[in-house]
Design goal:
Chain lengths: 227, 271, 283
C-alpha cells in the first residue's frame, strides 16, 4: 500500500536522478570542450552549473520537509542519503565547471604537444558516476560496493598523468602555464571519481545500513531488512 | 579557547552498553485467555535503569505482555500463563509469591489517568503507603515531596496539596498517578500508553519525565506512537500477533530493523 | 428540500413536542393533586399538639400522634440495623467478588423478593416472631422492615459499585494494595454517596410501609415501653384513623399523610443536596 509519504519519497528520488543526469552531462561536455578545444561549449558548461546548484537547494529543502514527517528505517536512510548524494553531485558540477574554465583558457592558446591519457581517465570517472547512480536506482548494494576500489585506479592514473605533465613542464618551460591548466583539469577528474565513490558508499548505507566510509570505525551493525 | 578531548569519555559516548544484569528476564511466556493464545513463547530481557518500549499494531499482545509483568492479567478470571518471569532473579509466579508483593515491586501507570476522586492530592500520593500499613507521618511527608518532585509536579501543587486530586488538569493528573506509583518505591515502573490521552505539551512533559526517571527506575512503556518510542526509549520490542518479532536498541529498530515485518510496520505499511 | 416536505416536518415536530409535554404534565399532575388534597384537608390539623401529644380517647377531639412519629423512627432504626449491614455487604460481595453463576442466582432471587407484596412479608414475620413471642411487638415490626430492606439495599449498593470505573480498582491493585482493602477504602469510598442515597431512599420507602406492620407491630394508642410491646407507626395510624367514623380522626389521618409525604420529600431533597457536585473539574 503506497502511502502519501511513499509518493513524496519517490518525488525526491526522481529529482535526485534528474540532478544526476545534469551533472553527468556537465562532466561529459566539459571533457569534450577540453579535448576538442571548444570555447563556446566550455562557456555553456560554466553557465549550466547554476541549474545544478539550484537542484541542490531544492533537494535540501525537500529533505527538511520530509524530515518533519519523521520517516523511519529505510525511508529515513533514503532521505539522509539523498541529501548527501545531492551534495556530492553539486561538487561534481563544480569540478565540471573547473574543467570547463581550464578548457576555455586552453582553447585561447595554442595546443600543447603532449600525449595524455585524459579521455581514458575521464571515461573511468564518468563510468564510476554512472554506475553509482545505477546502483542507487536499482538498490544494488553489491554493484555499489564494486565501485569503491575503482577509485584507486583513477588515483593511480591521475598520478601517472601528473608525472607526465611535470616532466613536460621541466623539459619545455614555455608551456608551464598551459601545463598547469591541464594539471588542474585532471585533478578535477580525480575529484569527480572521489565523489562517485562517495555516492556509491551512500548507496551501500541506504541498502544495507552499513557505513563503509571509514573502515575500522564503529559500524558493525547487523544488516538491514529494507532494500 | 583550548579544547582538550578526553579519549576515554569520547569512546564511552560512542559505545552504548547496558549496565549490569537485566531487571526482568522473561522466558517462553505464553498467556491464554480461555482457549485464546494471546502471547506466544515470548522471551526477552528488560534492561535495568533503562526504558524499554513495546510497539506493535492493535491486538498484538503488547498490553497483555505488560500486564503479565506485574500479574495484573490475573484480574481476568480466564487468564492463564506459562513460562517464567524473574524480577532480579526472583520468580514472580512461584507458588509462595503473592501477586500483591509483586505489584509493590513492579508499579503501573495506566492510559487513562485515574487519581482517586474522593482523595486530595497528598492523600492520593500516599495511598499506596497508607493502605499498606505505613502511618509514620514524617515518612509519608518525605515520600510525598520526593515522589512529587520525581514526577515533576511538586512546584505546581506544593501550595495546594490538600485540594481534591480531580481539580488538576489531565496532564497533571497523569503525573500525579506517576507520583502515586513511585511513592511505594517500586523497582520497575510499567506504563501503558501513558500519554495517549494527553495534548502534545503534556505528552512531551511526560516523555521528559520518563527520561529523567530512568536514572533510578527500570521503565517499560507500551506505546502505539513510534515517534514517542524513538524519543523516549533505549530499547524497543516489536510484537505482532502475540509474537516478539524483533528486539534491540531503539536507534537500530527505527533506522535499520532486521526483520521485514518490523520494517513494514515502522514505515507505516500496515498497522 | 421542497417546501411541502418542510412544513410537514415542522408540524410533526411541533406535534410530538406538544404530545410529550402533555404527557410530562400528566405524570406530575397526580403528585400535585396529592399534595393539594393533603394540604387542604390535613393542614388544619397540624399544630403543636399534633406533634407532641398522644391520641385522645376515642371520640374526643384533639390529641396528636407523637407516639406514631416516635414509633416510625424506632421501627426505621431497627430496619437500618438489620437491613443496612447485610444489604451493603451483600451488595459489595455481588459487585466485587463471587462467581458469575452464583451471583446471577443471588441477583435473581433478590429481584424476586423485591417484587414480593409487602403484606406477604408481614405474614411471614408473623409466623416467625409474633407467634413464638405470643404477641405483636416493635421488634417484629423492625425485623420485617429490616428484612424488606435487605434485597433493596443490596441491589442498589451493587449497582452503584458497578458504576465505579474499573480503572480505580486496577490502579489500587497495581499499587500492591490487598484486594479487600482496595474494595473498602477505594471503591466503596468512591461510591459512598451512592450507597447512602440507596439506603436513604429505601428508608423513605419503608417509612410508608403499612401492610406488614399490621401483622407485626400492630399499633398502639399509647407509648410502647419496650421492643416487646406493640408500637404505633404513622402509616398504621393513618389506616386506623381513616377507617374510623370520627371526623377529627379523619383530619388527623390527612395530617399524618401530609407529614409522611413531607418526610419522603425531605429525604429526597436531602439526598440531592448531599450528592451535588461540589468540585470544579478541569477539562
Amino acid at each position: 500500500m503506497e502511502t502519501h509519504l511513499d509518493m513524496e519519497l519517490d518525488g525526491l528520488r526522481q529529482k535526485l536522478l534528474l540532478m544526476a543526469s545534469h551533472a553527468e552531462t556537465a562532466v561529459n561536455q566539459a571533457v569534450q570542450a577540453l579535448t576538442q578545444r571548444d570555447h563556446d561549449l566550455a562557456l555553456r558548461v560554466k553557465d549550466d552549473d547554476r541549474v545544478i546548484d539550484q537542484f541542490e537547494v531544492e533537494i535540501d529543502d525537500l529533505v527538511i520537509q520530509l524530515l518533519t514527517k519523521a520517516p523511519l528505517a529505510t525511508n529515513l536512510r533514503l532521505v539522509t542519503v539523498a541529501m548527501k548524494i545531492s551534495q556530492n553531485l553539486e561538487r561534481v558540477g563544480d569540478e565540471a565547471t573547473k574543467i570547463a574554465k581550464r578548457a576555455r583558457d586552453l582553447s585561447r592558446e595554442p595546443p600543447v604537444k603532449i600525449n595524455l591519457d585524459l579521455p581514458r581517465m575521464a571515461g573511468m570517472a564518468l563510468n564510476m558516476l554512472k554506475a553509482a547512480l545505477d546502483a542507487f536506482v536499482n538498490r544494488d548494494s553489491a554493484a555499489a560496493r564494486a565501485i569503491v576500489p575503482r577509485d584507486k585506479e583513477v588515483d593511480a592514473l591521475n598520478k601517472q598523468i601528473h608525472e607526465t605533465i611535470a616532466q613536460h613542464m621541466v623539459a619545455n618551460p614555455d608551456t608551464i602555464s598551459r601545463c598547469l591548466n591541464w594539471m588542474v583539469a585532471t585533478k578535477s577528474l580525480e575529484r569527480i571519481a572521489d565523489h562517485a565513490k562517495n555516492v556509491a558508499e551512500e548507496v551501500v548505507y541506504l541498502c544495507e545500513a552499513q557505513d563503509i566510509r571509514h573502515p575500522g570505525a564503529k559500524n558493525q551493525a547487523a544488516p538491514a531488512a529494507g532494500a | 579557547m583550548n579544547i582538550t578531548v578526553n579519549p576515554a569519555a569520547a569512546a564511552a559516548l560512542l559505545t552504548q552498553k547496558p549496565v549490569g544484569p537485566p531487571a526482568l528476564t522473561v522466558r517462553n511466556l505464553s498467556v491464554f485467555f480461555g482457549a485464546n493464545k494471546v502471547l506466544r513463547e515470548v522471551s526477552l530481557d528488560i534492561a535495568a535503569r533503562a526504558v524499554t518500549a513495546i510497539i506493535g499494531p492493535s491486538g498484538c499482545g503488547k498490553s497483555t505482555f505488560l500486564r503479565a509483568l506485574n500479574r495484573m492479567h490475573e484480574l481476568n478470571p480466564e487468564a492463564r500463563m506459562e513460562g517464567e518471569i524473574r524480577l532480579c532473579g526472583d520468580d514472580i509466579y512461584s507458588r509462595n509469591v503473592e501477586p500483591v508483593a509483586v505489584r509493590r515491586r513492579v508499579g503501573m501507570v495506566f492510559q487513562k489517568s485515574n487519581p482517586f476522586p474522593t482523595m486530595s492530592i497528598v492523600e492520593n500520593v500516599t495511598v499506596g503507603l497508607r493502605l499498606n500499613g505505613i502511618r509514620d507521618r514524617k515518612l509519608l511527608a518525605e515520600r510525598t515531596e520526593q515522589s512529587l518532585h520525581m514526577a515533576a509536579l511538586w512546584d505546581e501543587v506544593k501550595d495546594r496539596l490538600h485540594d481534591p486530586a480531580i481539580s488538576l488538569s489531565g496532564g497533571q493528573q497523569q503525573r500525579l498517578c506517576i507520583a502515586r506509583a513511585l511513592a511505594v518505591q517500586p523497582e520497575v515502573l510499567l506504563m501503558d500508553e501513558p500519554a495517549s490521552a494527553l495534548d502534545p505539551l503534556a505528552t512531551s512533559k511526560i516523555e521528559d519525565l520518563i527520561v529523567q526517571l530512568k536514572k533510578e527506575y527500570t521503565i517499560v512503556i507500551v506505546t502505539h506512537n513510534m515517534q514517542q518510542a524513538a524519543r523516549a526509549s533505549d530499547y524497543t520490542a516489536f510484537f505482532y500477533l502475540g509474537e516478539l518479532i524483533e528486539f534491540g536498541p531503539t536507534a537500530k529498530i527505527f533506522t535499520s530493523p532486521s526483520q521485514k515485518r518490523t520494517e513494514d510496520y515502522v514505515t507505516g505499511r500496515f498497522g | 428540500m421542497t417546501a411541502p416536505n418542510h412544513n410537514w416536518r415542522k408540524f410533526k415536530n411541533a406535534f410530538m413536542q406538544t404530545l410529550t409535554f402533555v404527557c410530562a404534565i400528566l405524570v406530575v399532575t397526580p403528585l400535585l393533586l396529592i399534595y393539594y388534597h393533603l394540604a387542604r384537608y390535613g393542614f388544619s390539623a397540624l399544630n403543636w399538639d399534633f406533634f407532641t401529644k398522644l391520641p385522645k380517647a376515642v371520640g374526643e377531639p384533639g390529641g396528636g400522634m407523637v407516639n406514631a412519629i416516635v414509633g416510625t423512627f424506632t421501627l426505621l432504626a431497627q430496619a437500618v440495623i438489620i437491613g443496612v449491614p447485610v444489604g451493603v455487604l451483600g451488595g459489595i460481595y455481588l459487585s466485587e467478588y463471587g462467581g458469575s453463576r452464583f451471583n446471577w442466582w443471588v441477583r435473581f432471587t433478590a429481584d424476586i423478593i423485591n417484587g414480593v407484596p409487602s403484606i406477604t412479608w408481614g405474614i411471614v414475620v408473623y409466623g416467625l416472631i409474633v407467634v413464638p413471642m405470643h404477641g405483636f411487638s416493635a421488634l417484629a415490626g423492625g425485623v420485617v422492615l429490616g428484612l424488606m430492606m435487605i434485597p433493596l439495599v443490596m441491589r442498589t449498593t451493587e449497582e452503584v459499585l458497578q458504576l465505579v470505573p474499573g480503572g480505580y480498582r486496577e490502579a489500587a491493585l497495581a499499587l500492591g494494595i490487598a484486594q479487600w482493602r482496595a474494595i473498602v477504602q477505594i471503591v466503596v469510598r468512591t461510591a459512598l454517596k451512592g450507597i447512602v442515597t440507596g439506603v436513604l431512599l429505601a428508608l423513605a420507602r419503608m417509612a410508608g410501609e403499612t401492610a406488614p406492620l399490621l401483622f407485626t407491630a400492630f399499633g398502639n394508642l399509647g407509648w410502647a415501653h419496650s421492643l416487646r410491646e406493640p408500637i404505633d407507626s404513622i402509616p398504621v395510624l393513618i389506616f386506623n384513623y381513616a377507617i374510623s367514623p370520627y371526623e377529627d380522626w379523619h383530619r388527623q389521618a390527612w395530617a399524618g399523610a401530609l407529614v409522611l409525604l413531607m418526610f419522603v420529600l425531605a429525604v429526597n431533597v436531602g439526598v440531592r443536596f448531599l450528592t451535588r457536585d461540589r468540585i470544579q473539574r478541569h477539562a
